[in-house]
Amino acid sequence: LNLPVISHCEEPALADGGMMHEGFRSTILGLPGMPAAAEEVMVARDIILAGLTGCHLHIAHVSTAGSVELVRAAKEKGIKVTCEVTPHHFTLTDEAVSSYDPHTKVNPPLRSKADVAALQAGLKDGTIDVIATDHAPHTPEEKELEFELAPFGMVGLETAVGLVWTKLVIPGILTACEAVAKMTVNPARILNLKKGLIEIGREADITVIDPDLAWVVKPEEFASKGRNTPFSGWSLKGLPVVTMVGGRVKWMKFGK
Fold it and tell me: Three-state SS for 212?
């Protein structure tokens, strides 16, 4: 099939019952933690199995410095492994959970400053191939509960480009072309899809971005009904203004 094995790397024996990243912050807040090791031991296991079998392993939403280093080492050995990171994991730390905001409850959890720095470094040096949203919408009734009772997940589709541009492109961690490739070309290549490129014979699935447009995240203005985001009120730069699917304009930010 020429498709990868996509793995959510988590050891249940270490992570079950956890609500956030295990560390100083979880201790202070009195919330059960999910240690970095819960992810890393499974990343290590799956990489070993990929090396044994020769299959292509794609690791979903890596979140720890240890996972990045394991993938980097595997690639240096020639093991066929790729991985992805979400905007919230390269932007937010576990300090965001301090207010017990259920919109910050995600799995994998938001990690430490050192982990965020490692994720950004992995994006810069090419260890991390893909930026994916891990878009997980929930209704207000589901999400606006006590932290312990709220489900994991946040929406990511409508803030992804702004976070990538503001946190990665403008600071110089990625070039504009590198950022676009990690959201288009690379995912298509990994999944063996004839998408992600603008050329004859390809489907015209195109997003037009205004890189200089400053905007404020207002969940009430989202096109999606899913509005469970911790980024409400954030000022970002870089905004999609036109979406084309199959050569047809399906959405425009301005006008009709």
Answer: strand
User: Digits of tens for pLDDT over the chain (256 positions)?
Assistant: 678 999 999 999 999 999 999 999 999 999 999 999 999 999 999 999 999 999 999 999 999 999 999 999 999 999 999 999 999 999 999 999 999 999 999 999 999 999 999 999 999 999 999 999 999 999 999 999 999 999 999 999 999 999 999 999 999 999 999 999 999 999 999 999 989 888 888 889 999 999 999 999 999 999 889 999 999 999 999 999 999 999 999 999 886 5
Using alpha carbons, list the distances in angstroms from residue 220 to 133, 209, 229: 19, 21, 11
65-76 vs 113-125: helix axis angle to the nearest 10? 30
Per DSSP, the residues of 56-119 read -EEE-S--SHHHHHHHHHHHHTT--EEEEE-HHHHH--GGGGGG--GGG--SSPP--HHHHHHH
> What gap in Å lies between CA 72 and CA 127, rounded to an integer?
6
List of domains in the chain: 5-197 (3.20.20.140)
Which residue numbers are catalytic?
134
What letter represents residue 25's amino acid? Answer: R
Alpha helical stretches, state H, the chain: 12-15, 24-29, 36-53, 65-76, 87-91, 113-125, 140-143, 160-164, 176-183, 185-190
Residue 252: its H or E element: strand 248-252
Write out the two tokens for 43.
């990343």
